[in-house]
Amino acid sequence: HTLTVLEYKGRWLPDFPREAIAGMDTFEARHDDVIVCAYPKSGTHWVWEMVRFLLAGTTDLPVIEKDEAMMEFKLPQELENLPSPRPLNTHYHFELLPEDILRKQCKVIYVTRDPRDVAVSYFNHHTKLVQYYQYNGQWPDYFRLFLSGQVDYESWFTYTKGWERGIQEHPELPVHITSYEELQADTFGGLKKLANFLGVEVDETFLIQVVKKCSFEVMGATKGAQEVFDESSSPIMYRKGKVGDWKNWFTVAQSEQFDDVFEREMVGSWAYNLYSHTKQGS
Ligand code: A3P
């Protein structure tokens, strides 16, 4: 099985409007843009929602999806129409980020997640959106595709190493790094750090309100309920919302294979320090 993706200038992307994708090359940033950057299925919806509330200073906002502010999905004019400060988001690799973001030194929030949970989440994403991706493979088949990066936005390993390198090579760029696991372990603490990074003045009561509004349950019930449902009627973007679901999917052999690739690709990286201690053999 293969996934149907759009091949654009040698990149593998979802089949988004060509004009939107082309718009990334000439994107005009604003100094106060905030950009949530993550490999798909790493918690982009969650963090974007937090940023949206923090920038607005209220949780009393219309229920809209992060795709409304997804840079490679929306047309340039639609992005232009968004009021400042814009909470934007993208799954682009660091080296493909629009240059104007670096030039204007926009605030960037980089979110990472245990690649095994990403793989499981992405498998559910691809198989639930079967009509879009024309993919109906089983988990063992998908595992192979994920490991070799034959999915839209390509390899998690390349993506993650590219972001690490990019951040190191651009110390002038204000980047806040967080992880899905950190936010799960202490959502309030993670949110507070986010607020500090964004330089927004917020009190504790407001932060507690944001934590609640951004909970998996609330987002699933409001935003998830607006999704086009799959056959089993479970939302695609708000599936399970847990750390470590990979253990319910990976066989021992898959886990060992994953560890081998992880070791080979990531040794010496930040991600290695974050996730290697949970390797099957450890
Ligand atoms: P699972 O498939 O493991 O449940 P993204 O937003 O980058 O596409 O990531 C989607 C993943 O984040 C899904 O993971 C989804 O359930 C989870 N998620 C979405 N909203 C969340 C929330 N408010 N709290 C925790 N996890 C959330």
Automatic annotation (TrEMBL):
It comes from Candidula unifasciata. The keyword Transferase applies. PANTHER family: SULFOTRANSFERASE SULT. Coiled coil: none annotated. It holds the Pfam family Sulfotransfer_1. Keywords: Transferase. GO terms for molecular function: sulfotransferase activity. Residues 32-268 form the Sulfotransferase domain. This is Sulfotransferase domain-containing protein. The keyword Acyltransferase does not apply. Gene3D superfamilies: P-loop containing nucleotide triphosphate hydrolases (3.40.50.300). Belongs to the sulfotransferase 1 family. It comes from the Eukaryota. The lineage of its organism: Eukaryota, Metazoa, Spiralia, Lophotrochozoa, Mollusca.
